[in-house]
Amino acid sequence: MWVSAKPSISNISSLSFNSHQKPFRILPHISLPCDLSQSSQTTQVYCGVRELRGRIDAIKNTHKITEAMKLVAAARVRRAQEAVINGRPFSETLVEMLYHINEQLQLEDIDVPLTNVRPIKKVALVVITGDRGLCGNFNNLVIKKAETRLSELKNLGLDYTVISVGKKGNSYFRRRDNIPVDRFIEGGSFPTVKEAQAIADDVFSLFVSEEVDKVELVYTKFMSLVKSDPVIHTLLPLSPRGVVCDVNGNCVDAMEDEFFRLTTKEGKFFVERDSVRAKMELSPLMQFEQDPIQILDAMMPLYLNSQILKALQESLASELASRMNAMSNATDNAVELKKTLSIAYNRGRQAKITSELLEIVAGAEALTQLD
């Protein structure tokens, strides 16, 4: 039965008139909502005052939990953000230096396994997700990006395998029997060099043994506290855009590959940067004191570790920022819902008291008439 939570004057008058006719009639129960639907004048209701009181208490507890989770995420995201900002200059400078050295060594007969470009037959995707939920659509966006890339590779007729990092990604890919997974890795509370080393060792063994011909990172790039984007980053081999092709000569690079911020411009390697700083240029007449193979062999493991550690740090900062925003929205929604339910509760309580007063008045008038 639909009733209004705000009794009008006409309703009270009709109840009083009917009470004169039948003073001991049981009045209908006025119920209040568990499910609210706002209208222009009144709020329609479904359940009683007791249910509303219980729901308001539950929302208060939820508000306390989401508020605490927002504060914890805000405290942790500061540290993660500092790690990302402090690590980016080293990572970008290392890649730029490695590219310049690799460019100058192209004309020499040097065999470095991690820089060899061969026809692509199989691609490995390192997918980095979070370990927890309650962070909005953070994990869904990364997995969706990985699924899109896997579909592109499948349309190109290439084989692929996945290295999953993070509990959410692990649980997702375990349920997908059609996606081959080379390894499941669970991350820690904060990215460490040891964790990045474990992933780098697996990537190194797959590429050097020629089980895969290309390795790509799929992670969430931290832009700001309110924005983060899932990106694809080519890890191996080191090559400019369009060089890595399949056996038919088709380019297999992703259209929005993050790695190709380090790309070619006018025939030279070029680095696009958000901040302006002096570009590092190596003289073409420069001679290496050590054997170039030794230099690359020493720099490539450092390159792998730094790039994977950077991706882990960016992913963690994005996850914490997303969780902070999600819990902030949840807290605001809890406050608004508690306010709405409190209004409905007060209206229902007022309607119930009004109904009881009418019953008392009607009973008193009936006794007066009997006397």
TrEMBL record:
Pfam families: ATP-synt. One of its GO terms (cellular component) is proton-transporting ATP synthase complex. It is found in: Plastid, Chloroplast thylakoid membrane. Keywords: ATP synthesis, CF(1), Chloroplast, Disulfide bond, Hydrogen ion transport, Ion transport, Membrane, Plastid, Thylakoid, Transit peptide, Transport. The keyword Thylakoid applies. CDD domains: F1-ATPase_gamma. InterPro entries: ATP_synth_F1_gsu (IPR000131), ATP_synth_F1_gsu_CS (IPR023632). It is a peripheral membrane protein. Its main location: plastid. GO terms for molecular function: enzyme regulator activity; proton-transporting ATP synthase activity, rotational mechanism. Belongs to the ATPase gamma chain family. Produces ATP from ADP in the presence of a proton gradient across the membrane. The gamma chain is believed to be important in regulating ATPase activity and the flow of protons through the CF(0) complex. HAMAP family: ATP_synth_gamma_bact (MF_00815). F-type ATPases have 2 components, CF(1) - the catalytic core - and CF(0) - the membrane proton channel. CF(1) has five subunits: alpha(3), beta(3), gamma(1), delta(1), epsilon(1). CF(0) has four main subunits: a, b, b' and c. This is ATP synthase gamma chain, chloroplastic. It comes from Carya illinoinensis (Pecan).
